[in-house]
Fold:
Amino acid sequence: MDIQRAEKIVDSEVFVNVNYHGIPVYIQEVKGETAKVFPLDAIHHEQEVDLDGLNESGPISL
Structure:
């Protein structure tokens, strides 16, 4: 994922499905070539990951 798109997702009012190597995550912030994320099923497990491992899979339909 490129930096600009990751920053737009962080600033978005719409929840966007993002995966880190297949694991659904929430992006908290972007720091250069990395992002601070946590898995949706383990919100207390924050980690810093490379943007290259993040993939967008679209907004959630409600």
Q: What stands out?
A: The chain has a mean pLDDT of 92.
